[in-house]
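Hey, quick one: can you model this chain's 3D structure?
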Amino acid sequence: MNRVIQLEAVQKTYHTGEVDVRAVRGVSLTIEAGEFVAIMGASGSGKSTLMNIIGCLDRATAGRFLLDNVDVSGLNRDELADIRNQKIGFIFQGFNLLARTAAVENVELPMLYRRSNLSGRERHNRALQALDTVGLGERAGHFPSQLSGGQQQRVAIARALVNQPALLLADEPTGNLDTQTSIEIMGVFQKLNDAGITIIMVTHELDIASYTKRTIVLRDGLVVGDTPVTNRLNAEKEFSRLKAEQKAVQLA
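Sure thing. Here's the predicted structure for all 252 residues.
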């Protein structure tokens, strides 16, 4: 299988005054194409630093990092920016949508920064297709203020998909959502993963991690757990169960 992520003895040390903080202490791991991985750990475990390295937002102090078979360790700032735009789709807890811009235009944004010859019509059509993929095609012309939290996150997922990246990187994507909406969003991720898209998700919620296929746990900058999810939750079934419970409560 194609290795989307390959970390070899990766370290990250921050120099703060007279103190060196070893945030990541020699992490080696591989993530294959088509995996759905949750990265977990307490505050200070190094998971955010590791995700920043994987997302090419920060550089490792030592070690080797290959993203989709490209060694990014020695790339300059502009080359890293190109890699981020072409190979990684980012999804954040806070959606990060432009308030005065329609959903379809929000989705088009990553294509404006990509070195390609796409016409305006081609960008628009690809953005519409990405919105259709997440089940939001009929809301393409709506502004973020006209969308629910779950719909805004779907727009953010479509924006992350539009450049057809090798990897989706999601940082606490359900952190601002209620339980029902969180299950809906995990259903979107499961469908995308079933279609072959590789997803890495940072979460502190065990129930959210249960929707993935593999859990990596960090502590003190080291991987202390790397296991498959044995009792995996199915978002569609969980959503149906939750709706049935809510209906039973209303009828009681």
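One thing worth noting: The chain is about 35% helix and 25% strand.
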